Amino acid sequence: xxxxxxxxxxxxxxxxxxxxxxxxxxxxxxxxxxxxxxxxxxxxxxxxxxxxxxxxxxxxxxxxxxxxxxxxxxxxxxxxxxxxxxxxxxxxxxxxxxxxxxxxxxxxxxxxxxxxxxxxxxxxxxxxxxxxxxxxxxxxxxxxxxxxxxxxxxxxxxxxxxxxxxxxxxxxxxxxxx
Length: 178
What we know:
alpha+beta, disordered N terminus
């Protein structure tokens, strides 16, 4: 055994004796983070936790994992309808729930040939969005005897924060980001 190899083993043995795990631990500076541009890092331990995996399962499946950012925002639209020939007013409201999912390019990061996490490299152009109304069609009234009250329409947007998820076998699993 060479002199340098002996020193490496001594250092590793000292770390192990001190209770420092040298297996699948991300560097101390590494935490799961997702930045606005889709870059960041996901620790292997966070992936194992959300998928319920052990280290061997992560090592065997790391290359098949994908990451996405999902954002749900709500636009609340409100308006009033007036019954023709009366002063009767009814308030109407609908929420438009918009969900946007964006794919994130990633690559596994290894330490001593063991995957310790995943580098998020930015949004990759894959994605989808859906809009689901919750309530009546915007600016509609209960029936033809009601008319839209002029200048009664209001709209309030409530943006959502992106939620990072790991995708395995087509199923998204949210990953807590710090």
